[in-house]
Amino acid sequence: MGNLVSVCSCLILAFSGWCCSPSTDGEIAASGVRVGYTDSLGYTLYRNGEAFRIRGVSGHQRMELLRAYGGNTVRVYDPDSLGAVLDRAHQLGIAVVADLPIPAYRKADELATQQIHRVTPELLSVVERHHDHPALLYWILGNEVFNRGYSEEYVTAYNELVTAIQQRDSLHPISSTFNVYQLGYQKIRWAQPDIDFVSFNLFGNLPDLSSDLLLMLPLWRGPFVLTEWAYNGPWEATETSWSAPIESPNATKARQLRARYTEWVSPLYDNERMMGDMAFYWGHKTEATPTWYSYFTPEGEISEMAFTLGQVWKGTDASFPGPSVEYLLLNGRGQDVDHILTAGTEATVEVRFLQPPDAVDTVVWEIRKEDWQELGNAPALPAGSGQPFHRQRVDGAVFRVPNTEGPYRVYYQIRTSEGYFSASNLPFYVLSMEDAK
């Protein structure tokens, strides 16, 4: 019986951390970045000997605004842009988390293992070029690459790459992103990436993290960073009957962002293992739509989400300086119904404002086909003779329904000369005149 207790105790100790032992009081290096542990702070990132808590974003547009809002860290997904971002971040006093993309594992697919070997020289070249940059904080090797499983061969190839990176850069930690249950599965099977700490990307499941961490305590009690968090994504949204996700207006997303920080992110700092958080997405990107996670327009206008994040960091609650769209109505109905329209007919869109515009620089109305493959290349229907809108106002528009059957969205965006914007859209489905009868 005593032997069994000893074995169990050893197993718990083996599972309780990650792979690397953190520095403790008096052992924090004066240069580089290390994970340290003190009784007063718990787990902490130490940057050049000073405690550093990440208050940041994933994405790197408008870094000067991030700094003005109180943020201190950006995450760069694309290694091709890393050099320029590092230089600009250093000028602004901002730290950079750098992704090193590798193929994710797919069940029973060993091609990913071969692809890790294929991309290794290119990734090591990135490390060699940037490892001594003063703005670099740490590396993320692979984004959610273990979420659909793994094999021993895949983890072996992963760890070989980790070792190669550490040989070239001993001054910056390496992390990777997980979901909580996949992390637990890896712990139980002893197939573990040799990384310094764990990163989590959480959206609709963010409220579950605190309870999940408690469940994981017998297996893992190491440090972590929340590297992506926000309001719900397209994969979590309510859908139309033709499976188009329904996007909330920017104003609603901003309210959800504040609520999630207050209710779920901020309390995580009571846990001595949390070393920082990064909101998603500080830039412009397509995720089901061009606006779902875009905190900025391509030209840099500021959304309610970006502004609200700054207010959260400052502990203030100022009103958004630009107009704010509450919702759209299509033929008098909102997003709680399926909008089925007949080809060639007229449809009316109305805008309801939480905060109406005082002065308007630009109003943009667009009809776009649904971007099923999320390639970001579903263009607005053409201008000229094919222009669908024949009446456009700040608070509404009338358009001719496209003649081609299929799924579409009507997009509305209002921008001000002061550099702010608000946006909303509604999905609709076009039936031919014959099918509509």
From TrEMBL:
Gene3D superfamilies: Glycosidases. InterPro entries: GH. This is Glycosyl hydrolase family 2.
